[in-house]
What we know:
The structure holds two protein chains of two kinds. Chain A is mainly alpha-helical. Helix content of chain A is about 80%, strand content about 0%. The radius of gyration of chain A is 41 Å and the shape is rod-shaped. Chain B has four domains: about 20-60; about 65-225, Penicillin-binding protein 2a (Domain 2); about 230-565, 3-Layer(aba) Sandwich (Beta-lactamase), CATH 3.40.710.10; about 600-665, Trypsin Inhibitor V, Chain A, CATH 3.30.10.20. Chain B starts with 11 loop residues before the first helix and ends in an 8-residue tail after the last strand. Classes of the chains: A mainly alpha, B alpha+beta.
Amino acid sequence: MSVVIEARNRGGxxxxxxxxxxxxAALAVMLLATVGIIHVTxxxxxxxxxxxxxxxxxxxxxxxxxxxxxxxxxxxxxGPQKLEAVARTKLGMVPPSPALVFxxxx
Amino acid sequence: xxxxxxxxxSVEAPGKWMRVRxxxxxxxxxxxxxxxxxxxxxxxxHQGNRLQGMAQDQYLRELEIPxxxxxxxxxxxxxLAQSVDVDSIWVDPSMLPDARDTxxxxxxxxxxxxxxxxxxxxxxxRFVWVKRQVxxxxxxxxxxxxxxxxxxxxxxxxxxxQRELAAHVIGLVGTDxxxxxxxxxxxxxxxxxxxxxxxxxxxxKGRKVLTNGVENPLSRQGAAVTLTIDRQLQYVTEKALVKAxxxxxxxxxxxxxxxxxxxxxLAVANAPRFNPNAPQGVTADVFRNRAVTDAFEPGxxxxxFVIARALEDxxxxxxxxxxxxxxxxxxxxxxxxxxxxxxxxxxxxxxQVSSNICAAKVGQKxxxxxxxxxxxxFGFAERSGLGLxxxxxxxxxxxxxxISLATQSFGQGLTASPLQAAAAFGALANRGVLMxxxxxxxxxxxxxxxxxxxxxxxxxxxxxxxxARTVVEMLESVVEKGGTAPKARMDAYRVAGKTGTAQKADPxxxxxxxxxxxxxxGMVPAEDPRVVIAIFxxxxxxxxxxxxxxxxxxxxIAEVAMPHLAVPPSxxxxxxxxxxxxxxxxxxxxxxxxxAIERLDTVTEVPAEGxxxxxxxxxxxxxxxxxxxxxxxxxxRLIGSGRVVAQTPPAGSLVEKxxxxxxxxxxxxxxxxx
Lengths: 106, 674
């Protein structure tokens, strides 16, 4: 290799000229490669985030469904028919007679 | 040996050869680039659209995102209708090893006809619904079969957590979440929300890749509808109505509870009831919201409106007297009867014993035009615009014949719905002003935008305040001894009301049948009515009179409604006996936290020197409470008279000797038997 360079040098082209011609091309290639790598990396990251978002979306939907079910269960358990049954049978409560209801004057 | 030193390479020959080679390589590259460019042009421009479509078919899927149906709440925010996602089962029949056997197995698990299921599977499609909106148990049983080709999809299903409560008002939805009846149908557009379609990227395995972000699902949710219905009053009303219908062995019953000052409907009940969570097998007759959709001859409750108009127009005065003809009065070839034959009656007496004959005479004095116009003023023969499907209008025909004038004066020969009757009584209760009845107070969409905000609306003044008060006072006599509805009388509250016992028209024989509508419409407390309660019992068998059949239901509802609405009693009621003490029930299990706190309290509270424990003085008469407080070295301070209803500081707390204890007393109650 050194023989070839020496030969070229001997032909009259200095090293700085050769580097001056190759360097821009090399830099351009490097720039393109860098941009390409960044682009590919970003796409990979976007897709990975897409999967993550999809997973979180599914999780959120599941939690919302569970929340809906719990709200429904709560509303069912708080139904007056159910409450009355529990108050009468389990707690032994009875409605107060009107005379035993005291009204607090505002 | 070759002289390498003197061997000089030819300068000319390699330069030429190099140029040829470079040219050749250059040509090859240019040709390749040209070919690639031509191919790119072909793919991008000529075949671009077709290839783009093919690609999108592979990685894009259009997803239909169903909107969550809006909830329906009562006036206090209790959910009456909610949507929850449940599983639906589908199958690809081409993947089934034996469709007949599978259909049989599924039939047992899902309670579906195996023949019907097999027919669907044999139609050769790749997607067949097996059963939609199933329970979790059913899903697990189907999964346990371990058969290929089955899929499970989430679908929203409507649930009604309060079961039968207000079912006729709320209505119900079909399998595809479309309203079929009631408010679910009337507010379909508001409740259903916006269904969305979104293109979603799928990878090679069919997994969803959300590269464009997600949308907040709540933004597509349907609007929330808030009703004026009060769950507690609705429950009590339905319970009382069902009991009244059962006791009377009646065909059906209707009840309306409304606030006369605002027109808000607090409860609408119908019997028989149905569970909208399982509507299969329920007939259309049971689905009907009779209180709103049915118009029928209401009967004697309408006498109150005739008397009110006659008093208002000065046709009669409260002191006017009428001869009630001893219970029989002939008009042409017709004879009008009174259930309770009477002689001379004043206006109050006419209402108290519900004399048809005297009411007919008041009607005659009032005249045809004024009678009809009066009923129209009270809101009859016009829809209130409640928002429920099929609202009845009712008919007030012009009474050309003398007998029609007479019968219309006591509520026969015209039709009205229970809702109209309750609203009209509301006008008397609201000092003569008719309020527009309404059921939906607010509709708010998912962004918080108020789509509908109903406020109390005054329709018109029907009679003067003085006339309304006079009529209400007269109606109080109806529930007193000698009236037609003593069973509606309440000890603590003044009640005003009117009974009705109407004969039902026979559409075939074109006359009246031996079937009846028994009714009672009342207001409580009479001095400043807070609720109007209308009860209608269709075809009672055990008894036909409104005072016997409908009035007890009124009382049952009113007894709960008054404390619930914090209405102070009209009069002080002596306590006869303490409400029956229940059987000692097993103590509810305490949570570990509660038990720990209680232990902590009992262990740490040791009276320090100079400190005393406050005794429990609640329920004690004032004198005894003072005595006990002084004994405990406390300085009592009394507020009010009667028995101790509250004390500060509370019983059991530790205070310094000589500290002041405030005792609140209320009600001059006689001694209580415990």
